[in-house]
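Review box. Two proteins, two foldings.
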Amino acid sequence: MAQVVESPVSVRLPKYIIRKIDELVKEGEFKSRSDFIKYAVTLTLGQIMMEKAREKAKTITPEEAKARSRQALQKLLTEEIEDEWSELKNILEDVDRKWKGLKGAKK
C-alpha cells in the first residue's frame, strides 16, 4: 500500500461550528477537531464522487450496460476476478480501517 502523506490546511470556520465540533470531541465522537474535519471532508468527497458516478451512469445505454454486465459475468465465471479479489479485499480493508480511524474514538 502507498503511504498516505498528510498536508496541513488552514481553515477558518464560524465559532458556532467550532463549538459544535468541540462538543462532538468532548462526547468522544471524534479524537480531535482535525479528525472531525478529515471525516467531514472525506464524507463530502465520497458524496460528490457518488453523484458524478450517478450522472455518468445516466449516459450509459442499456446495450452498453448489458455488455459490461456480460464482461463482468464472464470474468466471474472464468475466475479471472479471483486474481483481483485479494488485492481489492486488501484495499477495501485498508480504506475501512482508515475511515474508522478518521471517525475517531468510537469504533
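Next protein.
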Amino acid sequence: MIRVAVLSGLGHAIFVAVGLLVYVMGTRIGHQRRHPSAAMGWVLGIVTFPYLVVPLFLLFGTRKFARPARRPHGPPLEATEGGPPWATRLLASLELAPAVRNARVVLHADGTQALQGLLATIASARHRLDLCTYVFAYDEVGREVARALLDCVHRGVRVRLLVDALGSMRTPPGMLRALRRQGLQVRRFMPLLHNPLHGRTNLRNHRKLVVADGERLWSGGRNLACEYFIDRPGHPAWADLSYEVHGPLAAQAQAQFATDWRVARGLVLRRRRKARSTAAPALPAPPAHGPLAQWLPSGPDHADDTVHALLLAAAYHAQRRIVAVTPYFVPDDALLDAWCLACRRGVQVSVVVPARSNHRLADLARERALRQLAAAGARVWLSPAMVHAKAVLIDDELALVGSLNLDARSLFLNYEAMTVFYGPQELHWLAQWSDQLLARARPYHARAPSWLRDVIEGVVRSVGFQL
C-alpha cells in the first residue's frame, strides 16, 4: 500500500511538473505574454487541479498566433501627415496600415440612422459584399439584413457572411443553412467543437464590419440584433456607435475580412510574413483632401496588443482630456495606472459606463477600477440606459471608435477592430455625442466594499476577465 501511494504521489508530481513545463514552453517560446494575475491563475490552477487545468490550458491557453518581427535599426518611422506624430509613428512601428484620407465619413447618431446606413451599404454592392458580425440574431433586424443579403445574391453580387460561433450561438442553424442554399457563402468563426490546431475556443471574433466592393465600409460596435437599432415596448434601443466610411479605409477593412475568412476555414496565420500581407492592401487612389482615418485591428492575428499600446501612449501624451465610453470597464493594471497618473498631472479623465449593464459579472469586476480612478480624480458617470458604444477621445487629436470594450478580454484575447479618426469634424461630432451622454448620466460615488464583496470582485476580475 505504501509503495502504491508513493508511486501514485510520484506520478502526480511528474504530471504537475510536465504541466508547468508545458505552460512555460507555451507562453515563453510562443511569445504569449500575459498579465501577472492571469499567469498566476494558470500556474496555481496547474498545481492545484492539474488534471483539469492542463487540458484547459492546451485548449484555451494560446493568446497569439502572430509573432513579433525584428525591426532593423534605421531612421525613425515617418508620421502620417495630419495625425499626431506620437500616435501615427507608434502605429507604423506596430506594422499597421497607415492613415488614409477618405471621401466621406458618417457617424450614426442613433439606431435608425445606423440601420439605414447598414442597408444602404449592402444595397450599394455591385461585385462583392463581405459581412462580419459577432451576433446575427433571428429577429426583426436579423431577418431584414438577411433579406438584403439575398437581394445582393440575386443581382449577381458575391456575398460572404462570417459569424462568430459563440456570439451567434442562438441563431437557428436553419437560418444560416437557408442563406447558404440560396447562394451566400457562410462560415462560423471558431466553432465550439473544432480541431484545436485551427485555433482556441476562447479567442472570439468580436469584429463588426460590412464592406461593399472595397470602397464603402460600415462598422462600429453594433451587432445585428434589435436591441442595437430599434426601440421596442419596454426595451429602448441601446446607446451605441457605428459609422460609414467611403474611401480607401474600406479596402483595409476588406483585407482584414479576407484574413478572418481564412482563419475561419482553419488556416491560422502563424507566420509573420503571411500576417504582414494584410497590413498593406492595394488601395484605391485616395482623395487629396478628406477625413483622415486609420484602421486599427487587434487580436491574436497581431503580435502586439495594438489598441492597448495606443491607449497607453495616449495616456502619457494627453494634455487636456481623455473621455472613454464603454459598456464594460475592466482594464489591466498598466492602463488603469496610466489613466490615474494622467489625472494626477492635470488631465481630465472621464469614463461613462451603464449604471447596470447586460452582464452582471462585468459590473462586479469593474468596481475596483472605478474606485481607483475616482480616488485619482477622474470623473466617472453612470448612464441610466444600457450603453454598448465603445469610444475613446484624446484631447482634440484623435478618437477611437469600434468593437473593443475596455476589458481584458477585448484588449488581449478577442479579434477586435477599431478606427482611429483624426479629422476635426469627426472629433467635434464625437465630443458633442459624449457630452450628451454625460448630460443624461449621474456621477458615480465610490464606496468602500465589504470584505466579502472585495473578495468576490477580485475573483471575478482575475478569473473571468484574464484567463
